[in-house]
């Protein structure tokens, strides 16, 4: 089970308002800035705090992932992402995120066996696809099918039962590759390929995604490794929009499948997981290096609402460490596939170079994020653009379920319920319709 480091009081901040003062505890965790605990503020001073988009608010204590956005550091359970990306497998990372420590050989064997034995979907779930249009976006299919899982696995939706929570975690991690691959097969008009338990996690996903019954599918170890690395890099990222969505939905006691479906919906947006798809669209629209200056001018024009996709991050004000690993993986994949000149990559590198020197991006600390390169790798590996965000969702499922489990086990957990500053009409009396102007 996750070992929680509970924050400690390291000081007191005093807030004064309207002739009254409130001493507020200042809390610190194991790393990162201290936080003012404002839970008693309303009782003491009669005021709330205002923080739309939560840029200055910690919503929970968590011992899973740590980001230092200024230094470009990302840790899973204390381990630097660079070490995990180089040395571990995705299932090892999944175990680490879920249970708090890297598994020993026996623990990894039991975990792998558990995940492997849950990869098939209830056969009735197949029929869901018949209801979708052939051109349905795969994120729409993911969202619906994952939400529907609560109707198929009702034996693991009691959120108060630790054993059921664990089974639903296994189910989610094991079945999401099957759902993701089948969403693609439905779009492509190809037969669904069933999971194969003799393959590892990434091999199994690539097999279900790319194989057709007409010929054998051969795994390329460099691509399998790249797939595993992409999954590791996307596995968790502290309290981002989709994870916070999962936690907020989960705080009501909603079942885990419904919560993950909510996370998938939140990830879909182009400001979040949809950015990898948007990067490729952007590169295609730019088309040629010669068009970069005009595109950059458009991005800098506030009236255009055009953004440089794959750049910028709410927390990273330095290079996203995942982007560096992605760039390296990108070269490895292109070499393994014998792709010598990839115009998209050349264009992306030129765009990155120009943006990193431009005062607009430098002054706003806008650097490439994980999605800047992931789309190019996924495209080279034969994934259609619409599958980029579903693959992100596949990877992030382990983060979502780990954060959901941590939340349920947190004794401080209550239903999430933000307040507001009301700016509407003050109290007024009902006017009969014939007296309204
Ligand atoms: N292109 C151009 N300008 C940008 C970009 C960008 N990609 N990102 C931020 N800015 C500008 C903003 O317009 C703002 O300018 P201003 O101060 O003159 O008004 C300034 O930089 C600060 O940006 P915010 O919007 O305050 O940053 P915020 O934290 O709200 O947004 C976000 C972060 C959503 C990631 C944003 O940078 C963005 O939209 N990036 C492009 C989409 C993208 O790549 N998303 C993936 C994020 S990583 C992930 O989810 C895996």
TrEMBL record:
SUPFAM superfamilies in UniProt: Citrate synthase
Pathway annotation from the record: Carbohydrate metabolism; tricarboxylic acid cycle; isocitrate from oxaloacetate: step 1/2
Annotated PROSITE patterns: CITRATE_SYNTHASE (PS00480)
Keywords tagged on the record: Transferase, Tricarboxylic acid cycle
Superkingdom: Bacteria
Catalytic activity from the UniProt record: oxaloacetate + acetyl-CoA + H2O = citrate + CoA + H(+)
Alphabetical list of Pfam families matching this protein: Citrate_synt
Family statement drawn from the similarity comment of this UniProt entry: Belongs to the citrate synthase family.
The protein, known as: Citrate synthase
Organism of derivation: Acidocella aquatica
Lineage: Bacteria, Pseudomonadati, Pseudomonadota, Alphaproteobacteria, Acetobacterales
């Amino acid at each position: 089970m996750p070992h929680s480091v509970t924050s400690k009081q390291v000081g007191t901040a005093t807030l004064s308002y309207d002739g009254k003062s409130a001493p507020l505890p200042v809390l610190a965790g194991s790393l990162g800035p201290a936080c003012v605990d404002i839970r008693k503020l309303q009782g003491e001073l009669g005021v709330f705090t205002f923080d739309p988009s939560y840029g200055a608010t910690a919503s929970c204590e968590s011992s899973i992932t740590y980001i230092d956005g200024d230094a470009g550091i990302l840790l899973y359970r204390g381990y630097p992402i660079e070490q995990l990306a180089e040395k571990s497998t995705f299932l090892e990372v999944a175990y680490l995120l879920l249970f708090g420590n890297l598994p020993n050989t026996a623990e990894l064997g039991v975990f792998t066996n558990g995940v492997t034995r849950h990869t098939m979907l209830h056969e009735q779930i197949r029929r869901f696809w018949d209801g979708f249009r052939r051109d349905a976006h795969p994120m729409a299919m993911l969202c619906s099918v994952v939400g529907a899982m609560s109707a198929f696995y009702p034996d693991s939706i009691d959120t108060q039962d630790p054993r059921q929570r664990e089974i639903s975690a296994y189910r989610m991690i094991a079945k999401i590759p099957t759902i993701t691959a089948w969403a693609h097969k439905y779009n492509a008009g190809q037969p669904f390929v069933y999971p194969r338990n003799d393959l590892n996690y990434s091999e199994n996903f690539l097999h279900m995604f790319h194989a057709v019954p007409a010929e054998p599918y051969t795994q390329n170890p460099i691509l399998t490794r790249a797939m595993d690395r992409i999954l590791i890099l996307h596995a968790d990222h502290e309290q981002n929009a989709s994870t916070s969505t999962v936690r907020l939905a989960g705080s009501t006691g909603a079942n885990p499948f419904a919560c993950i479906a909510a996370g998938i919906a939140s990830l879909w947006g182009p400001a979040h997981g949809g950015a990898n798809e948007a990067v490729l669209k952007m590169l295609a629209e730019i088309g040629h290096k010669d068009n970069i200056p005009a595109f950059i001018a458009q991005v800098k024009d506030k009236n255009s609402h055009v953004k440089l996709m794959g750049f910028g991050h709410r927390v990273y004000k330095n290079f996203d460490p995942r982007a560096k690993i992605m760039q390296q993986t990108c070269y490895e994949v292109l070499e393994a596939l014998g792709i010598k000149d990839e115009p998209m990559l050349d264009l992306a590198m030129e765009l990155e170079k120009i943006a990193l020197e431009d005062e607009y991006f430098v002054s706003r600390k806008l650097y490439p994020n994980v999605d800047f390169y992931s789309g190019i790798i996924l495209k080279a590996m034969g994934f259609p653009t619409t599958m980029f965000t579903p693959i992100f969702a596949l990877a992030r499922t382990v983060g979502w379920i780990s954060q959901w489990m941590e939340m349920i086990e947190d004794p401080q957990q209550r239903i999430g319920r933000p307040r507001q500053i009301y700016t509407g009409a003050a109290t007024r009396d009902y006017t009969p319709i014939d007296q309204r102007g």
